[in-house]
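Operator note (shift B, R.M.): manual run for Response regulator requested after the automated queue skipped it. Running by hand, logging everything below so the morning shift can see what happened. Input copied straight from the record, untouched. If output looks odd, do not overwrite the archive copy; leave it for review.
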Amino acid sequence: MNVMIAEDDYHVAGIHEKFLKQLQDIHVIAKAQTASETIQLVDQHQPDLVLLDVYLPDQLGVDVVEQLYEVAPHVQIILITAATEKEIFTEALHLGVIDYLIKPIAFERLKEAIEKAQAQSNQLRQSPRITQALADSFFLRVKDNSDKEDELPKGIDRLTLEKVRHLLQEQQDGITAEALGKQFGASRTTSRRYLEYLISIDEAKAELEYGIVGRPERKYWKL
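Run finished. Output pasted below as returned.
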């Protein structure tokens, strides 16, 4: 994922960049210090994601979000701010930013925001059509699963869980734990652990399928 940083304080921008370099498959491709420079560089580089500060010297970051969408329709935006005003937060929600981070930012919180952006980008890129389940994974996740996923059980990684969700979504005829594990490079045991977790939070179901020979197989479907 190619990321751009829009932050007028070069020291803070450096901290953001240092954080991002610790994350896998994240590349900082440009940094801007003003709103006008942000629009220009987004148009030029077409980043996947922009970390956009609210208080830029020439214009509020939140006021250029629509212009960024115009020059880069597929860009995702994480708004970063020291502002706690309800009006700015409400406007950010209306503009469709993917996350809203308040300074000072903890690394783990930034990591979580980046992983969410990666997961949603991957889901849209790999899905040939928008199903209700895919739409629900975007719009209902906060409502339905926030309490269940605040603390994931031991052995469940959030990013891997998103991969399993997406792969399971593609299986119209169901899939075994072993077959799914091969798709994301995990053992049958690991794959089944994630699948059973999805069942526990009402996102998947399983049924025994009886073949002509051999033992019945446990197959999984996305709800």
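Quick read of the result: The longest strand covers residues 27-32. The longest helix spans residues 107-126.
Leaving this for review. - R.M.
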